[in-house]
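Sequence, please.
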């Protein structure tokens, strides 16, 4: 009998074609790997995973196998690390040993170790150092970037006002607004929300983010030589990346012709200056390939992470109007009708707690970006081999019930002490931790505060009449909210 379910059919074909590989697989006795569920030949543990939201299964398995256990994707063994203490131990206390990246078949053909997210070790170190330094040079942590965010917030307020309280979908507007902050650093300019260029960039990046979290993408990374015949996911991802890369190359090629080393206007100019300085060096890092990949990574971060968190925030304050009222009360008391500034964060503990809880509950990158060991490493009684893929499961940290008493609920009091003061939490790790943590963390936090407070200062957000507000996360590499419509009612 032929299976009717396409996933079952694909797995059945893979099982038949590659059964022989089971006998040539990893010698599991060579290393002392942590225990885990018993794998089947060829498919490993894929049959027990929630393929749409595998992080849910991974989190549940930790209750049986402990904070460190082994899964098998196909014939590849993967170590999953769960809970605040274990994840912090790996990413902070063993930062060097867990700072590698595994190769992902879906991206490797195009990325080839360039950039900052999936960059190979030496390359990643140079690109990260350059990125952090350049972001500081162009305003991160300074008044200049704060002014840009304030100005962009006003544009977003104007756009929301144009809907006159009628229902609208906020994906494009919030994504374009947040993206403009990073684009001003990268390109030295902003885009109108209806500009075809930014609309196309948003569409390509959003589609790739969704595709990278699909079942077919997971199967492709596990069985690339087989899955290329059964799915077009790789073709779609690469087409989007190629279009994005073409835009980036055209942009920096034009800027190279106008480059003035004494007047660097943006990150691209700074990179091109480094490129000139590096030319005599036979081991080059500041190449066109690295610039293309680096800008792609920063585009992705700008257009996806912060804007998606902001959309989670607007959905949650509609779901919990009493929380929205408390935030607005604090805004009125501390800021009034003035523009929000970074200095206000210290005076607004409840708003700060709500924003942190949005990030925790939203759980934007639930599986984390996968890591890999850079050498054989002894970790919590086990010996892990060099190059093994590691998943430091952020879901298990942000929903760790030892640190968050109501982990499954939206509860801003997680970040408030008994006196109502803002309280930091060790398990607040939405940007990951250690050497591979997000380099734009401080910029993202500032944007979230300024955009969120500016919007709630000007509007009360409500669901359209009769609409249900669904907090189920969508499917994708980042777990954004399901598409929804909202009404932005101007505050008197």
């Amino acid at each position: 009998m032929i299976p009717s379910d396409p996933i079952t059919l694909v797995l059945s074909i893979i099982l038949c074609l590659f059964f022989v590989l089971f006998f040539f697989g990893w010698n599991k006795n060579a290393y002392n790997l942590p225990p885990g569920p018993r794998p089947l030949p060829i498919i490993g543990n894929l049959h027990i995973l929630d393929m749409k939201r595998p992080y849910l299964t991974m989190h549940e398995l930790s209750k049986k196998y402990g904070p460190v256990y082994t899964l098998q994707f196909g014939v590849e063994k993967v170590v999953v690390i769960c809970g605040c203490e274990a994840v912090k131990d790996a990413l902070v206390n063993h930062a060097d040993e867990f700072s590698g990246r595994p190769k992902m078949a879906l991206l490797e053909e195009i990325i080839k170790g360039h950039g900052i997210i999936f960059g190979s070790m030496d390359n990643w170190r140079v690109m990260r150092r350059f990125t952090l330094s350049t972001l500081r040079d162009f305003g991160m942590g300074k008044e200049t970037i704060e002014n840009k965010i304030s100005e962009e917030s006003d544009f977003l307020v104007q756009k929301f006002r144009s809907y006159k309280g009628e229902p609208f979908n906020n994906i494009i507007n919030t994504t374009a607004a947040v993206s403009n902050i990073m684009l001003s650093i990268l390109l030295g300019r902003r885009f109108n929300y209806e500009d075809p260029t930014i609309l196309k960039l948003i569409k390509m990046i959003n589609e790739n983010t969704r595709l990278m979290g699909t079942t077919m993408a997971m199967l492709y990374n596990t069985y690339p030589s087989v899955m290329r015949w059964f799915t077009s996911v790789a073709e779609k991802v690469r087409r989007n990346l190629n279009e994005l890369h073409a835009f980036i190359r055209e942009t920096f090629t034009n800027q190279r012709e106008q480059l003035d080393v004494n007047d660097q206007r943006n990150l691209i100019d700074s990179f091109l200056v480094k490129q000139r300085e590096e030319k005599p060096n036979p081991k080059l890092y500041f190449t066109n390939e690295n610039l293309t990949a680096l800008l792609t990574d920063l585009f992705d971060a700008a257009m996806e992470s912060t804007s998606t968190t902001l959309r989670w925030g607007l959905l949650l304050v509609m779901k919990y109007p009493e929380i929205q009222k408390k935030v607005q009360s604090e805004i009125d008391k501390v800021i009034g009708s003035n523009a929000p500034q970074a200095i206000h964060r210290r005076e607004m503990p409840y708003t700060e707690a709500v924003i942190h809880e949005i990030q925790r509950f939203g759980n934007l990158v639930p599986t984390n970006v996968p890591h890999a060991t850079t050498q054989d490493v002894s970790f919590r009684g086990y010996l892990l081999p060099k190059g093994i893929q590691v998943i430091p499961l952020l879901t298990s940290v942000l929903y760790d019930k030892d640190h968050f008493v109501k982990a499954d609920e939206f509860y801003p009091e997680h970040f408030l002490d008994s006196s109502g003061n803002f309280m930091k939490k060790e398990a607040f790790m939405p940007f990951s931790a250690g050497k591979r943590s997000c380099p734009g963390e401080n910029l993202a936090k500032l944007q979230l505060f300024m955009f969120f407070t500016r919007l709630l200062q000007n509007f009360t957000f409500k669901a359209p009449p009769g609409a249900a507000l669904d907090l189920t996360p969508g499917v994708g590499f980042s777990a954004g909210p399901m598409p929804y419509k909202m009404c932005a009612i101007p505050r008197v």
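DSSP finds 17 helices and nine strands in the chain.
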